[in-house]
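To whoever picks this up:

The parser on our side crashed when reading a file containing two proteins. I've narrowed it down to the boundary between the first structure block and the second sequence. Both blocks are reproduced below exactly, byte for byte. First block:
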Amino acid sequence: MRIVVKVGTSTLAHATGRLNIRRMEHLCKVLSDLKNAGHQIILVSSGAIGMGVGKLNLPGKPSDMPSKQAAAAVGQCELMYTYDKLFLQYNHTVAQVLLTGEDVDHPERRENFENTMERLLELGALPVINENDTIATAEIKVGDNDTLGAIVACCTKADLLVLLSDIEGLYTADPRKDPNAKLIPTVEEVTPEIEALAG
């Protein structure tokens, strides 16, 4: 089975921006076990900006684009170093793939991405994908990494997409802002209203 797993910043890092070591170790252990069982794993990972904020000892997430991009550049190194080290303990090789919206919108670039992913999986690598936040601006961003996870799952013809998040599922509104938000347990059909909630 080919499985895409998306993990968010709030799962990987503490509020300080520093690494949540216990969670990252557990994530890598579980994904390694799935690979050992014969599954192909693709990890879509947030966390570069958050880790860069911690590594640069910034007081909080910056609001200006150049500082966000600088934090992403530093944080992406930290993120991949950590994944490489943790997965190597279980004899798995990681590969870094950074994308922008243009990479998946442009047919030739999308095909190149799909071919690269197919070959990485054939070679037994575990691709770690993130949006290329060091160059992505509002015009060329994919959006959030839930969307990126869905795009990657479609491009790689994955059998399963798992979104690891600090929110339990799809709600009628943002549960962090609206106390009346209700969890939608099952989506039978993707309607325009459901699309609006997911966006």
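<<boundary where parser fails>>
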Amino acid sequence: MATEDNPIVYGNGSKGIIIAIIIAIAILGGAYLLSKSAPNIYLNSDNAQQLNKISVSGTATEKVSPDLLVIAFRIQTESKDAKTSQSDNAALVSNFKTKMLSIGVPEKSIKTTSYQVVPVYKQKPCESGDVKCYTSSYYQSYLAGYQTIQTISIELTDLKLGGNVIDSGSSVGVNETFVDGISFTLQEQTRRELESALLKKAAMSSKLKAQNIADGLGVSLGKAIMGSETSTFNYAPRNYGYSGLAMMKEDSSIPTQLSSGEIEVSATVSTQYQIQ
């Protein structure tokens, strides 16, 4: 029998198809809504392994003798006009450099680190009749002149020259040349080599700590998964001012003597190891 000849069969078949389509749409819509509302969760073996780890840090410290001495001098002159102040300062600096070269300081070790010309203001009692002068306790400022200040740094790899440099430099000008600071430190190449060696020692120290922890826990120590410096390179050069040295000298004719002592340098490394 032909299909169009049987309307009941044709109608039942259409309803079945429509119901199937509705069910399919409902399933797809539900899946879409679930995908929007449920959070995305990802699991992998790497994340699981990260949970099984040992975190430690190691520090290496060493005391070394300094191989560089830095002495900071301040040469300052004052005059009523800026040009005279500058020319007077230039003459003193020239004399200063000549003395440094004469005692064996290399020219490349003499460096100007700052130079400035500043006005100098002083105070005086207000003049009679000045509207601001109500009592004698009032003062007014006035421009007294100009001051030229030049700071010179002397870097010495021959530390034995330090005392002679201070005595020779301080003799330039009367109350015009000053020692602002003295620092026993390390040359750049020495510092880099020392830092590299200490970082290796600190990393080995952290690994030994991790191994001891693993042995205590009864587990096997795996490979390192992280390593970094947890603190800045701890390096403190020895510094002291010249004023203390001057007071220690009972006789100004006695040459200045400096004692370098030792410098303590340290480095810290933080690491993480897997537990197998």
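After patching the parser it read the second block fine. The CA atoms of residues 227 and 271 lie 4 Å apart. The longest helix spans residues 7-37.
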